[in-house]
Amino acid sequence: MSGIRQIFGKELARIFRDKKMIFSVFLLPVIIMIAILSIINVLASNMENNIESHISNVYMMNEPESFRQILENSGVKCNITAIDTDAQMEDAKAEILSGDADLIVEFPENLEQAVAGYQEGDQIPQIKTYQNPSEEYSTQAADNLTQVLETYRQTLLSQRVGDMESLVVFQVNADNDEMYIQDEEKASGRAIGMMLPYFITILLFAGAMGIGTDMIAGEKERGTMASLLVSPIKRSSIVLGKVFSLMVISGLSSLIYVAAMVVCAPMMMDSFGGAGDLNIQLSIRQILMLAFLLVAISFLYSSIIALFSVFAKSVKEASTYVMPAYMLILVIGLVTMFNFGETDSSSYMIPLYNTALTLQGILTQETTLAQYAVTLVETLVIGGVLTGVIVKAFESEKVMSA
Amino acid sequence: MIEIRQLTKVFKLSKKQMAEAKTKNPRKTAVDHLDLTAKEGEIYGLLGPNGAGKTTTLRCISTLIRPTGGEIYVNGHEVRKEPEEVRNCIGFLTSDIKLDDQFDVDYMFRFFGRLHRVPEQEIERRRKELFTYFGIQEFAGKKIKELSTGMKQKAAIAVSLVHDPDIIIFDEPTNGLDIITARCVTDYLKKLRDEGKLVIVSTHIMSEAEKLCDRIGIIIDGSKVAEGTLEELLTQTNASDLEDAFFEFYKDRKGEA
Questions:
Q1: Looking at chain A, which residue has its C-alpha nearest residue B60?
Q2: Which of A7, A32, B10, B72 has a beta carbon 3.0–4.6 Å from B68's, enabling a disulfide?
């Protein structure tokens, strides 16, 4: 035990005695994340402001006087150019294509008369708009004008039909505030449950990757591992000390990332216009289940990284070996992110995948105790077996002297 | 005491290593049925050219690698059966083993002291003694990566001796050191010998072996070809110094050509 404690202490000291390491392991990723989110946020709102402040260039053909009134009252700002001939229409279309103009609205000739003198069986007048969906300004102009046209339609319709209410046969959920019947906790759990396993698994693995490869392959490469190997402690103590410290470091770094994400979540929601309410309410049972599972997952990940590192001759080689495992974790995270419907109990037997499933299941309260137990025990057993293999590798002079 | 009986170490070569060594034999015998006994209160020198098997022998004694055949007893403990006990009574230093350069000398000294289960007070006493002797005090707070080669070697020596081992095994201890530091190291090894400890060193420097070693074992191609005090080796070969004596043994082993 003393050997494990000493190695554990030294590995933590390597990080915590060095300000640069603390910065690069724990703070830099958070700073980068916040910086990226802030930049996205600023760029997104700049884009939005830019589009909103843009005055659309709109060509109108056969524009009725009554429409101009409604357009002015709507508050939509645009530079309107009237066109009359087909040649002007072609020129305007060319400008739409090049992005110089944003929209063309083509009214039929004498729209007002056609609407006013409508008899049953007459052809219904049609207004045509031309826009360029590749241009943000054009899309925005089309959206604005469509709204104004809708108002115009309602106005003309009210002139034809005295009582607008007579056109409404029935309404759906007009004043039904209780239309959604759901468990609020489960609903917020689903939103979190969709993202959390993905982020937690990736962050735990990513947090351990750089440090883990350096801790074993790096020590071999630098020749410092041999100094531990000639100490009077068991090889298993060295391995366990390193794996446990890796667990702590990856656990701590992912905790910091998650905390930063929670802080940044409103910022993210703002940027993408989502109104997601991330109100997390976890019961003590859920918290305990999550805590034990996260410890087991970080044990498994640390042992996977340590296993690849022990067979590598250098940090570079170890990073190359670990990368496919990281990809696998990413894919598993993505699979659970888009996993809907009932999950087969046998899925809980699949290593790694079951951890992501169970993390999700705890939050949505869909995982049974038996499924949780299978996942927890299986994760710990695999972590234990891998650690055993690492100890064996430490005893092999061929592996350690490489 | 160290007792080596019929030690053999065979390495399996990879295809790349075979190509580098220009051989088609996938097995390389680094040490071949070596017998050796070294006792307390003496400095035993393993003398031989590069690749003779000196370092391999020392690495087998220190349990870093496992013998292919034969037995090694260190203070009565067999290296394969009781490796932790063996490591507890030796202090091993070789240029392949380095101190973690992220840490300062002080931290490394205390860390290895605790790994050897030395009580804190004793660590402090040893620290004072060794740091004063080797002049480490002035750079004890510096990180290993900031030290010069000589400083690193001094720090490594002090760390390897933190637990006051009965047996000291140094592989080419003065390699890369300036003349003053080298003298400081050899003087300390003599001091340890005088305190009744067993010191085993490997070297290919004849003058060092002449001045330092009480007994010398000459190793060529993994086999011990001669053993004895300097006088005994000179008498056996009718040579005037160790270098001439060494070449006599070398010629005997390899033939005139």
A1: A397
A2: B10
